[in-house]
Amino acid sequence: MDDLAERPKPAEAAWFRTEQDGDTFHMTVGGRWVISEARRLDPLMKTIDPNGHTRIVVDCGPLEQLDTVGAWLLLRTARVLRHRGVQVQPVNVREEYRALVHTIDHDCTAPPVELPPPHTFADRLERIGRAQVRALRQAYELVGFFGLIASETVATILNPRRLRVAALFRQIEITGVNALPIVGLLSFLIGVVVAYQGADQLRQFGVEVFTVNLLAVGVLRELGGLMAAIIVAGRSGSAFTAQLGTMKVNEELDAIQTSGLNLIEVLVLPRLLGLMITLPLLTFYSNIMGLLGGMVMCYFDLSITIPAFLSQLREAIVGWTFWLGLIKAPIFAFIIGLVGCYQGLHVERNAASVGALTTRAVVESIFLVITADAIFSILFSVLGV
Amino acid sequence: MSGIASNVPAIRVRGLVTRIGGRLIHDHVDLDVWPGEILGVVGGSGAGKSVLLREIVGLQQPTEGSIEVLGQDIAKLTDDELVRLQTRWGVLFQDGALFSDQTVAQNVQVPLREHTDLPQHLMCEITSVKLSMVGLPPEAAMDYPSQLSGGMRKRAGLARALALDPEVLFLDEPTAGLDPIAAAQFDELVRELQKSLRLTVFMVTHDIDTLRATTDRIAVLVDRKVKVGTIASLTHDTNPWIHEYFTGARGHAALAS
After folding, report:
1. pLDDT at position A377, please?
2. B100, A69: Cβ pair inside 8 Å?
3. Residue A88 maps to a domain
4. Domain range enclosing A268
5. Which pTM value belongs to this model?
6. Based on the number of CB atoms within 10 Å of its own CB, is A6 exposed (0-12), middle (13-18) or buried (19 or more)?
7. How many domains does chain A have?
């Protein structure tokens, strides 16, 4: 007798044994043939060798429990043996297992499934290539979308009744008014940081009063507008993509189009124009809060009184300094709105797509905003303002 | 099956009260589902069918009452006990709820990977068996969910729900959105799998053809209560909604066929 169960087993564990009797090979299976026993049984079942016998009788009488995995292990072995020309004859199969055995024996003849191969170096190269092509195609389409928006905007200007005033004001509230706390707080903190760092450096030369000039130029020309734009890109640009994307998944965009409404006019223009109105206002507010933060810092760190700060500030803000920051705001707003809406309209009808494109919208709009800011800097320096 | 004597219900709901946003959905509902039966749950839109299913599988807390699945009170389980119980049931959500970034084969292997120590080659064999059992062609294994039709997504979801050989199977509107032929095939599939795997099936559905083809008993959620019976007994029910449901034009056609 050949007992093939490896370790001492609890009463209910799966077991099987084989014995030779004349020209038949006997196999008895018993216990619980279930998924939790499969790891142990799998290699054992592969060692079964009928020793040249052409007939094997499998006694399933002591079988206490059988699930799909257990049945599969038995039937897989039977299949292999039959393939080798051995006749397999199960006996004493309980009635309750018949249906399962029949199902697996007759319906489940497909080879094991394959998993997607792990990524190779060539796959990575291919991914990089595809990403390049996609980026270029998207840049091309974005230009097309820009043209579409431009023509719709002109059409709206020629026929102002097409403008959705209620939607526009709602967007102004959502993207502007609701953003006031976060924009204010962050700009205030940036003002504090710039004043603190500036004061530290300028004190070494004994000209710490110029901290105010540094603050004025830094916040008004660059930081105020950039902070507002980046926060709005993260807050509203992402929201545009997510809203339009969810509407697309929900077939709302299709409903709008089939109802004879203009998608751009109903959804995109109010968002875009709303943002172009609010971002300059937010930039102004951000500037004020930044200067306020710097003023507080100057008062405590450098003992510059508020009247002294204000008079120094008035001297520092020369020429275009104040306006240069604000001029950029509508352009930034246009970039953020354009990218946000474009990505939203290109969402595919699955849950992962909304998330992926929302991320892409934020990253792209911040990238484009900073690129545009750099171009502005060069432009202003060439113009000498 | 070991562990369940046939006089203990597989699912036992007692005094269930559900209130959502001040609205009373279930008012002291009692329900038993016996091992090895297919129970259909019907009711009008908003009658709380899906809510009941979600409460039984522990996705939502009832306001009052107790729910036992396979003899264990859902509300009193520790996290570990709940996980162990979760491996003994399978849930098929309406649209399959397949993980969209994984192939069908990988989807089916998720529970196997998490809850068993099977070697990879055996997992691939088992996955193939399960996919064949739910009637998916072998080539579908490498597909991503977005490449499948609605009916195939449901079958793949069913294969995943059955991955660990559960004792109880929950189906949420299994035939919704399928064409009549696919729906009939799915009904037959559920019936066959119930037989070969000796499943207890809790099935929320709208489809009166499915009810007729698959269920042993039917629970009707109506007026915040539940009424249980067979199609024959419910057809003669005095409640106007139930009467209309089984004897209205659609119900009549389905029952006559």
Report:
1. 92
2. no
3. yes
4. 123-383
5. 0.73
6. exposed
7. 2
